[in-house]
Amino acid sequence: MTIPNQRLFLILLGVPFLLLIPFIAMQFTNEVNWSGFDFLIMGFLLMSTGLVCELILRLVRSHKQRFFLVLVVFGLFLLTWAELAVGIFGTPFAGN
Hints:
Helix content is 77%, strand content 0%. By secondary structure, the protein is mainly alpha-helical. The chain has one domain. The radius of gyration is 16 Å and the shape is flat. The model has no long low-confidence stretch (mean pLDDT 93).
């Protein structure tokens, strides 16, 4: 298996494992209370972030540009996650 295919495989396998963290936490505490929709949205966010980063790594040749673009994508992921979780910007998408 080549390196790009290994990265893609890790992304596709890593997203469900990351989603297992809140699922397992829900079994032990009431502090984590995700619905199926929450898992769907987070799965979409994680998968899209991983696939966009993979696309950047495959298409962009300059290491500086790769680093900057992946950093921007990761920053957008974190801002979106924070907005959906606690509403730091106060948009209608904010959690409660």
